[in-house]
Design goal:
The complex is a heterodimer of chains A (445) and B (133). Chain A is an all-alpha fold and 445 residues long. Chain A contains 19 helices and three strands. Chain A is globular, with a radius of gyration of 22 Å. Chain B is α+β, with helices and mostly antiparallel strands and 133 residues long. Chain B is 17% helix and 45% strand. Chain B is elongated and about 65 Å long. Classes of the chains: A mainly alpha (445), B alpha+beta (133). Chains A and B meet through helix 1, helix 13 and helix 17 of A and helix 1, strand 7, strand 8, strand 9 and strand 10 of B.
Chain lengths: 445, 133
Amino acid sequence: MSTPSVLTTLPAHGVGSRGDLPLPFTALVVAAGAALLISFVAIAFLWREPRLHESDGVLLPGWLAGILDSRWLRLVAQVLAVALTLWTLLALVFGPDSARNLVPHVVYVWLWVGLAFASMVLGPVWRVINPLRLLHTGVLRIARVSPDLALLPYRWGLWPAALGLGAFTWVELVAEENTSLGFLRVLIASFFAISLLGAAVFGRTWFEHADPFEAWSRLLGLLAPLGRRDDGRWVLRTPLHGVNTLRGQRGLVATVAVMLGSTAYDGFSANLGWATFVQSSPLPSSLLRTTTLIGFFGLVALTLWLASAVSVRLAGQPLRQSVPFVSDMAPSLIPIAGGYVIAHYWSLWVYQGQEAWRLLSDPLGTGADWLGTADLVPAAALIEPTLVATIQAVSIVIGHLLGVLAAHERAITVLPHRAAVIGQVPLMVVMILYTLGGLTILFTP
Amino acid sequence: MRAFRPLPYAVTVLVLAGTLTGVAGCASSSGSTGTGQPVTTGTGTGAVKRLEVTITGTTVTPPPAQVEVPVGTTLELVVTSDHDDELHAHGFDDEATLEAGVPTTLRLTATEPGVYDVETHDPPLTLLSIAVR
């Protein structure tokens, strides 16, 4: 007998109670064929001399650049971000511990997925509106201390960001009580504490390099059509130009591996066969899930390094060269990660993202409607199945295309001339595997 | 300015256009087939589909599978567990209490396309997923 009841429980998996239909077989075949075709055409016909320059791009008209640079625009965005943060903290401290609390939606949908989409359109927006960065700047200003105050030099590159992203994706995809209020309080309090401590010791460099959300926003923001060319002026440019500005740095390979591996694991773990295996295994399910998530990170890093090792050997260089080379090539996986993000999170963002407005109107769970959005019914036009399947297949194929082109440009830049074409084949093989893997994950029910 | 090389752009545009039309054209017409042993009474909108699931410890019979239903179908899910538990149909926002050995029926009407999991909580098990088209 079914009893209609107020839900006290939420899905173990983040906040989405609705998944996408499996990708139709035809879409799988067409997209896979397109990815293969693109790869072979690229090998045969692409440019032979580096051709992406940081001075490229179509200049934006002066008035538009003026708006983008204006202090007012930044101020408005910062005020909104701070207001939303305080609103969320209010619900975190005083809100109900039930599905009516807005915190899980703000954290897992707006912050994580929304930030990814916003960054892919507008660029690295989080560094402008990061409320913790604003808090840090504000405190230093009030104390009349230089904004560059740092006690110790910072030297770990993106490694802390990679660890932070890995931990956050574990929380989102594996942790069982990840929508309960007690869990979220500990999570958010620890993040605030670590960030402010890091900023206090290492100065604002901490946000620049070690903050996981700034790294997430900055790396995906490279794909944005909006950017600054080398003289600092605003231009419209291709995602390739953004990706090409990123140089290898410490922890970049790990960060990219986490970005790609976590999204792939998210799709993979929605697979019924996997769920059946986990629940019928005698091993604890959290152990299996955690190991598999880390395995996905490791698989991306390992395949990338293997491809680089083969490349440098083909180019006749010593094997130790594969370490700088893998770091050089890692940026070209960012378009693939972006394609995965769009394919996996499109419907969560455009549908569940609207749901957040409903919850936002009642932060204390008292039945209030402070924003007038309590009765909002999410529009389903953007999650129409054919549209979703098309967006998924096309974003994965475009991600693959951009990844191949970015890798090509980088290979002819860093490899000796005669070895550049053959040297990029191993990485292309890896990219084909990622793309076919990503499509298969979307196709499997 | 460098010379404009049209070939890569042309190939790219062609491939993407091909993908777009190929996917959009076929996405609505094909689909994977669901498993499980549903007993369908009637077809199309307003139809009722009945499914029986048994839980023994952590074993789900029939094994978890994706059940396909058209929008508008009502799914009658009869669940019998060997222990007390909570039954939860995601997306349908429907819950029921399972008593050991007593068959419990959940009637779920599919309104929005998508995939929805039906789960129990103690231990957490996925019983099946419902693909609404």
